[in-house]
Design goal:
Helix 3 (42-56) packs antiparallel against helix 4. The protein has a domain at 32-83 and 103-137. By secondary structure, the protein is an alpha+beta fold. The chain is globular. The protein has helices at 5-18, 20-25, 42-56, 63-80, 129-136, and strands at residues 31-36, 92-99, 102-109, 139-144, 150-157. A hairpin with a 5-residue loop joins strand 4 and strand 5. The longest helix has 18 residues, at 63-80. The protein is built from 5 helices and 5 strands; from the N terminus they run H-H-E-H-H-E-E-H-E-E. Keywords: Kinase, Serine/threonine-protein kinase, Transferase. It holds the Pfam family HATPase_c_2. GO terms for molecular function: protein serine/threonine kinase activity. This is Histidine kinase-like protein. Residues 38-153 form the Histidine kinase/HSP90-like ATPase domain.
C-alpha cells in the first residue's frame, strides 16, 4: 500500500511547527531525547536507545532499519563535528518523535555544515551514510536550529 504523501507532509508540518529547537529543549508526548558525546561509542548508545524506545512504542518491526539510520546519522555528526571541544556543553542529541502514523528520527549537532550526499564510491570506507539513510527511510532532510547547528532527520511511515 502506497503511503499518502499528504500524511507525510502533515507529519513534517507538525514536527516543524513545534520545531526541533523546542522538541530538543522540553519534553513532549511521544518524544525521546538522548544527549550524546562526540565519540564513536555514542553510535552504540544511540542504537540501544532507539531499539528500546521503539520496542516500548510497539514499533519493534522498525528497530533494524531505524537503528541503521541512527547509526549513520550519529556517525556523521561525530565524524564531521569540527573541534568538538569548541562546542562545550552542546552535545550531539538524538531525538525520536512518534506522530502516528510516522516516526521522525533526528540527530542534532552544533555544526552548521550542510549534510550533502557524496557520489557513491563502493570501495571507499566512508561516504555512503546519507545514501543509506535515503534508502531505508521514507524521507530525510535537515533543519537549521535557532541556536546554531542543525537537526538531520529521517522520516519513517509506521503501519498502525
Amino acid at each position: 500500500m502506497a503511503e499518502d504523501p499528504g500524511s507525510t507532509a502533515q507529519c513534517l508540518d507538525v514536527t516543524l511547527e513545534i520545531g526541533f529547537d523546542r522538541l530538543l529543549a522540553e519534553p513532549h508526548p511521544g518524544t525521546t531525547t538522548c544527549a550524546l558525546r562526540p565519540r564513536a561509542e555514542s553510535v552504540a548508545i544511540a542504537r540501544d536507545v532507539t531499539r528500546t524506545t521503539l520496542t516500548r512504542w510497539g514499533l519493534g518491526a522498525l528497530c533494524d532499519d531505524a537503528a541503521l539510520v541512527v547509526s549513520e546519522l550519529v556517525t556523521n555528526a561525530v565524524r564531521h563535528l569540527p573541534h568538538p571541544r569548541a562546542y562545550g556543553e552542546r552535545p550531539i542529541t538524538l531525538l525520536l518523535v512518534r506522530r502516528v502514523p510516522h516516526l521522525v528520527i533526528a540527530v542534532a549537532d552544533p555544526s552548521d555544515g550542510v549534510p550533502t550526499p557524496k557520489e557513491p564510491d563502493f570501495v571507499a570506507e566512508h561516504g555512503r551514510g546519507l545514501h543509506i539513510v535515503e534508502a531505508y527511510s521514507d524521507r530525510w532532510g535537515w533543519s537549521p536550529l535557532a541556536r546554531g547547528g542543525k537537526a538531520v532527520w529521517a522520516l519513517f511511515h509506521c503501519a498502525p
